[in-house]
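Q: Could you predict the 3D structure of Iron ABC transporter permease?
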Amino acid sequence: MSTTRVAPPSSVARRSGRALGLLPAALVLLVLVLISVGLGSRDVAPADVWQALIGSTDRADATVIREMRMPRTLIALVVGAALALGGTILQGLARNPLADPGVLGINAGAALAVVAGALVFGAMPASAAVWFAFAGAALATVAVYTIAAVGREGATPVKLALAGAAATALCGSFSSAILLADPDALNELRMWQVGALAGRYYPVLVQLAPYFAVGIVAALFTGRALNLLSLGDELASTLGLRIDRTRGVLFAIVALLCGAATAACGPIVFVGLMIPHLARLITGPDYRWILAYSTVLGPVLLLGSDILGRVLLPTAEVPVGVVVGVLGAPVFVLLVRFRRIVTI
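A: Sure. Here are the predicted structure tokens for Iron ABC transporter permease:
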């Protein structure tokens, strides 16, 4: 006679609570989307924003919202999700609270490859630049982990942070040198290099949408593998996980996410560092839920930072990469200082 296994009530309640917790995060994200498409040099009332989004008006405001502000907002959503998911996977892979595509130099490596490609081949569409970004992200990942793994202790959090900082500085210096060598041809890349959403419209979104879609969907299915890796390589292998192949796939997903994000709006740091820790505080150690929350909270952070950058100065706009960097730097310092109390 077969028996049906019933989950304990506490487990069901915990899962229900986690699922319901996504609702307020999604509502906050919706509010930020409405603010983003209505905020600019010419502010638009919320009612007019809604009319423009549903296509029931042909006013000039509607054209600005649909053709300029909406693509910028959508790019912020997918880039925020990609960076947050990439950071979550990296932290699970390395079992390291400081792992982040920006901190470890992955985004800087992708940016250097894009800048170098633009210097050699001239201005490129996003669909071509993304391949340079993939290659740069992959090479930076291998280089940083190889450097940090030297020595008896292996790739410790501090060594990874130091190696990533060195890689970021090196790649940033080379990128700046290339930009200074040909300022006219690479004028557009100068703003892109600091991480900016301004001037990113539908062509960029359409060209990169397939890479974002594949990367985000694939990342959401890595929860089980990350949970097993968190138990240690030996136990994960005993439970049937192919360690080397799984790590290779996970690193490929990170390179896909970070390469697409960097090609879209330049290197943006700290999103992948802060968001997984915030999600972990809400959900606990289960990576399936951490990934789900990161998909929502990453866009909340990036879009909120973009909105903040638009209102900080009366006559100019602060690039979103600068705003996120200012917000994330204290968090990074705290994680380094109190890393022993942070669990992965």
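Q: Anything worth pointing out?
A: The chain has a mean pLDDT of 83.
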